[in-house]
Amino acid sequence: MSTLSTRDLIINIPGRPDGSALNLNIEPGQVWGVLGPNGAGKTTLLHTLAGLLPARGGQVVLNQSPLTELTRRDIARQLGLVFQERQDSFPATVMETALIGRHPWLSPWESEQGCDQALAEQALTALDVDDLSGRMLNTLSGGERQRVAIATLMTQNPDIWLLDEPTNHLDLHHQVKVMGLLREQADAGKAVFLCLHDLNMAARWCTHVLLLYTNGDACWGPVESMLVPDALERLYNQRLITLQSGGVSVFVPAP
After folding, report:
1. What does pTM read for this prediction?
2. Residue 116 and residue 22: Cα distance in Å, rounded?
3. Which domains occur in the chain, in start order?
4. Residue 6, strand partner residues
5. How confident is the model at residue 87 (pLDDT cuts 50, 70, 90)?
6. Which of 80, 93, 165, 248 has the most neighbouring CB atoms within 10 Å?
């Protein structure tokens, strides 16, 4: 299984000082939640970890190799990304979209085989969109398209899952189902790193948390040590009421 780490990483936010250097180790079995207000750099960090944006300083290391020394195919076989917003440029069915996840594993001009089709079918079923497999993607609701995007990542089957607001557009039932699926993937040996706005989802499903502040400060660690009122109230500039439910902290904005 692959490990994703950063060495003195400084993400590049235009007009902002360097801030904290990030030295993270994202390992198999972990679910990392990235929390922070708008503009703190959550999406920029995710895209930097995926090699889509250059860092201002430091390195991203994938399985002991600097990301900059790997080919895109090598990266895609180990690491996958679900974007917060997507532009679907080409008409495609749900099944055709899910099968895009197999492309890193196919040689040029090679067609998908039965095993690839089976992986896509399993992923679509896991995300409750198997009944939409023949539908054109651009006819789906926002929540359905979000679940197809996650199913495509599941079909890709990388060791490291990067997701930007994966519960966007989802109803409550599917928010819970998606977060439960991500935790199951981690329990099976994947590493999951996702941006969130919901403190309570982080408290329930994450093993580790990274707090990103708008001034560039950052702190990280096990969820129990990070989700504490002082740090969170500073993070969001909002007083919180903390409750306990089933041994898990629940955070409610104070009036």
Report:
1. 0.94
2. 37
3. 4-253 (3.40.50.300)
4. 60
5. low
6. 80
